[in-house]
């Protein structure tokens, strides 16, 4: 029994390490799918839907500069997810945590949560990587 648990852990670790190299690509893909229509492909706040918004769509490349050079990771995660009561930059920001949950209806409430958090975190890591 212990041997099979160790084998499972080894497989998970190996798969996870291979995924680290793809994290930037996954984060960019998530961003382009969920965020670029409003925030723009370059995250400058100039997406095709930005002009239709009732509040200005912020640029996302200056988050670190606005925070003394520190990327506000937890704030960004909460703004993207939206389920913690933190509404991102005005009310029109979608609650992506709920939207991502709808993409995985058969995972159940606990099985979906790691997937949702991974998607949100991948976007946050991507945003961190494009700071000016």
Automatic annotation (TrEMBL):
GO molecular function: electron transfer activity; heme binding; metal ion binding
InterPro entries in the record: Cyt_c-like_dom, Cyt_c-like_dom_sf
Signal peptide: 1-23
Superkingdom to which the source organism belongs: Bacteria
Annotated keywords: Heme, Iron, Metal-binding, Signal
Name of this chain's protein: Cytochrome c domain-containing protein
Cytochrome c domain mapped to chain residues: 22-131
């Amino acid at each position: 029994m212990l041997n099979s648990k160790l084998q499972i852990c080894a497989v998970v670790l190996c798969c996870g390490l291979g995924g680290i190299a793809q994290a930037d690509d996954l984060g960019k893909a998530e961003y382009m799918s969920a965020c670029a229509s409003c925030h723009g492909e370059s995250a400058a706040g100039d997406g095709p839907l930005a002009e239709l918004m009732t509040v200005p769509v912020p640029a996302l490349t200056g988050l670190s500069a606005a925070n003394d050079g520190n990327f506000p990771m937890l704030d960004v995660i909460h703004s993207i997810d939206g389920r913690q009561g933190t509404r991102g930059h005005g009310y029109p920001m979608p609650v992506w945590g709920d939207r991502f949950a709808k993409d995985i209806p058969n995972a159940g409430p606990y099985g979906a949560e790691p997937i949702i958090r991974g998607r949100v975190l991948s976007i946050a890591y991507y945003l961190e990587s494009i700071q000016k």
